[in-house]
Amino acid sequence: xxxxxxxxxxxxWLLVIFVFGAFITSEWNDRSVHEVFGMxxxxxxxxxxxxxxxxxPSAQFKNFIKPPSKIIxxxxxxxxxKSKSIAGHSPVGGLxxxxxxxxxxxxxxxxxxxxxxxxxxxxxxYLFPSVSQLATKLHQNAEILLILIVMVHLSAITFYRLLLxxxxxxxxxxxxxxxxxxxxxxxxxxxTVAGLGLLSLxxxxxxxxxxxxxxxx
Length: 217
Hints:
Helix content is 64%, strand content 0%. By secondary structure, the protein is an all-alpha fold.
């Protein structure tokens, strides 16, 4: 069964690359390259939010955002190793997805309006000068939160693999799993092409924002 559509899979792996690139270039203090990675993360976040309404069934928010009662019930079953294996996001997986989208969006947005007070400004800093300094602090101080979220995400994948016997990674490459229950990820060829076009547009728009930002020199 197809559980993840092609645009969603490309988004996922690009997010891994760009977040890692943004983190490394931040540690290297390479602001120009860090800006590119960060803005491309913003483009990916915009795509994912849109795709959460118009993408395949498994990608749509309405199919994996669950009330707290269902999340807690599924978590209890999972800890007892009695949870059902379903195609798409489980209630806990859906919550993790929302948290990940929120955190990466937070970093990308605050970074886009931040500045170092000397030679660097984010592409949108000139539009929000009154909050640019606050955004800079929020962007810098929340780095540990992103590291924590990534560690939790990797730990969850390991938990599923070792304790529940479910290897979640291959499906993010080829898109298919054996499970029959849950929303599918199959979409038509025109829908796929439109999704890839939307993804490309979001990434190109994010890069264009860098090219068009006013110079502070």
